[in-house]
Structure formats: structure tokens, C-alpha cells
């Protein structure tokens, strides 16, 4: 029988702990990889044209746009890769979370879409907040290198 950690709360259905415990790390890894890969796909268009969002970032008050636009592209594309593989997970997730909080502001306030327009960005920001605080797990490059940043 799998030993249950003292820090782990007792399950409502104890028999299911045999299912939950082995999939704990797998589920967290899957969430990190999916979030990172989706951020990469979102940033791909920006990385191929790093100055394509100059007008948008300046419209949000980020001047000069020629600085912020490539930074946005790099954060989404390379930050997504880092989160997906679990390398420098905390700083990459933190930077990604900041980008997503700006999109919350953009959709919710600037575009006037309110919560309905910002809800996906809020969810994504929360996912990256989790990894900024938690870091990666045993299934990551950080772990293979024997460190957590």
C-alpha cells in the first residue's frame, strides 16, 4: 500500500487515494506543459514579427513600443518554452503571469469587455501564478539539474 504523507489531507474517499497519489505529479506536469506549449503557440506570431505589436503596447501606455513589443514576444515564446520544459520555471512563470495580467487589463478595461472578456486571461494568470510560487516538480529540467530557482 502507498504510504500517505502526513502533510496530505485525508481524502473523502480513502480508497481513491490509490488513484490520486500516483497521478498527482503527472497532473501537475501536464498542466505545466500544456500551459507552456499554449503560451508558445500564442507567442509564435509575435516572435516572427517582434515589432508587430508596437502600436498595441504603446496604446496600453508602454513606451517605447520598440522595446516592449519584442519583450512581449520573447516572454510569450521563450517563457512558454521554459515553463513547458521546467527550466527556470519560477521566473519564466512570473514574467508570463505579468504579461497575462496586462491582458486582463487590456480586455477587461481598455476594450471594455469586463469580466467576460478577461476571464481567460485571469485563468491563465492564475495558472502561471501557481508555477511562479510552486516552481516545477520532479518531472522538469530544474529537477534534473538538482535545483529550483
Describe the 3D structure.
This protein starts with 16 loop residues before the first helix and ends in a 5-residue tail after the last helix. The chain has helices at residues 17-48, 54-59, 65-85, 89-110, 114-134, 141-144. It has a domain at 47-144. It has 149 residues and is mostly helical. The longest helix is centred in the N-terminal third of the chain and has 32 residues, at 17-48. The model has no long low-confidence stretch (mean pLDDT 90).
State the secondary-structure class.
Answer: mainly alpha
Nearest-integer average pLDDT? 90
Low-confidence stretches: none
Radius of gyration using CA atoms only: 18 Å
Helical run tally: 6
Q: Report the sheet-strand fraction.
A: under 5%
Task: Describe the main β-sheet briefly.
Answer: none
Query: How many strand segments?
Result: 0
Beginning-to-end CA distance, first to last residue: 34 Å
- Spell out the helices and strands N to C: HHHHHH
| Net shape | globular
Helix percentage: over 70%
